[in-house]
């Protein structure tokens, strides 16, 4: 593998640290006055989940690990974990709670997601920018609450709570931004 200067790393890059594959989860280049610049970063091990907080000088390097992204369809969840199927090879990829904990409120059966592999080990799941979900619970809008930007909390089919306008009702399909779980609009 190639060695890469730490100043060239960014969030989402994979590196080898202590003979373990880690993904950069937080990165900041600091340049204090009259001092040498340094990089403050957090990296998360993809095998054990441990987070390392590192402070390295800007001229240090780390070993880079190639990431591969492959589209898989979310099939179902059972006692073993979350099952994803490759659409061409029909290979089943089983992920535990630790790999999907940040994205499980966006997992819908039949939806395609990018699974990120680092040296044939699953590093995580990349969500699309937005996803269409069905509203399963939404309180009725109160008559007279017609001021601009009035929202209510609606629960989606995955259990995600989203702030939606008063006109959204149970059974409606809406588009949700996966970055922050915000309402984008009605979907067809």
TrEMBL record:
One of its GO terms (molecular function) is translation elongation factor activity. One of its GO terms (biological process) is peptide biosynthetic process. Gene3D superfamilies: 2.30.30.30, Nucleic acid-binding proteins. Its main location: cytoplasm. It is found in: Cytoplasm. GO terms for cellular component: cytosol. CDD domains: S1_EF-P_repeat_1, S1_EF-P_repeat_2. Residues 131-186 form the Elongation factor P C-terminal domain. InterPro entries: Elong-fact-P_C, NA-bd_OB-fold, Rib_uL2_dom2, Transl_elong_fac_P/YeiP, Transl_elong_KOW-like, Transl_elong_P/YeiP_cen, Transl_elong_P/YeiP_CS, Transl_elongation_fac_P. Keywords: Cytoplasm, Elongation factor, Protein biosynthesis. Pathway: Protein biosynthesis; polypeptide chain elongation. Belongs to the elongation factor P family. HAMAP family: EF_P. PANTHER family: ELONGATION FACTOR P, TRANSLATION ELONGATION FACTOR KOW-LIKE DOMAIN-CONTAINING PROTEIN. Involved in peptide bond synthesis. Stimulates efficient translation and peptide-bond synthesis on native or reconstituted 70S ribosomes in vitro. Probably functions indirectly by altering the affinity of the ribosome for aminoacyl-tRNA, thus increasing their reactivity as acceptors for peptidyl transferase. This is Elongation factor P. It comes from Roseimicrobium gellanilyticum. The lineage of its organism: Bacteria, Pseudomonadati, Verrucomicrobiota, Verrucomicrobiia, Verrucomicrobiales. The gene is efp.
């Amino acid at each position: 593998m190639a060695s890469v200067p730490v100043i060239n790393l960014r969030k989402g890059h994979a590196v080898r640290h202590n003979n373990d594959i880690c993904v950069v989860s937080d990165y900041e280049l600091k340049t204090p006055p009259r001092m040498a610049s340094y990089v403050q970063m957090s990296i998360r091990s993809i095998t054990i989940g441990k987070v390392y907080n590192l402070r390295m000088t800007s001229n240090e390097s780390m070993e880079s690990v190639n990431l591969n992204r492959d589209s898989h369809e979310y099939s179902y969840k059972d006692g073993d974990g979350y099952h994803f199927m490759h659409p061409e090879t029909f290979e089943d990829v089983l992920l535990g709670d630790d790999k999907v904990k940040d994205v499980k409120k966006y997992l819908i059966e039949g939806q395609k997601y990018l699974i990120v592999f680092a040296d044939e080990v699953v590093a995580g799941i990349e969500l699309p920018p937005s996803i269409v979900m069905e509203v399963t619970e939404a309180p009725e809008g109160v008559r007279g609450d017609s001021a601009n930007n009035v929202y209510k909390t609606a629960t989606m089919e995955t259990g995600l709570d989203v702030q939606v306008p008063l006109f959204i009702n149970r059974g409606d399909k809406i588009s949700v931004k996966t970055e922050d779980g915000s309402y984008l609009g009605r979907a067809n």
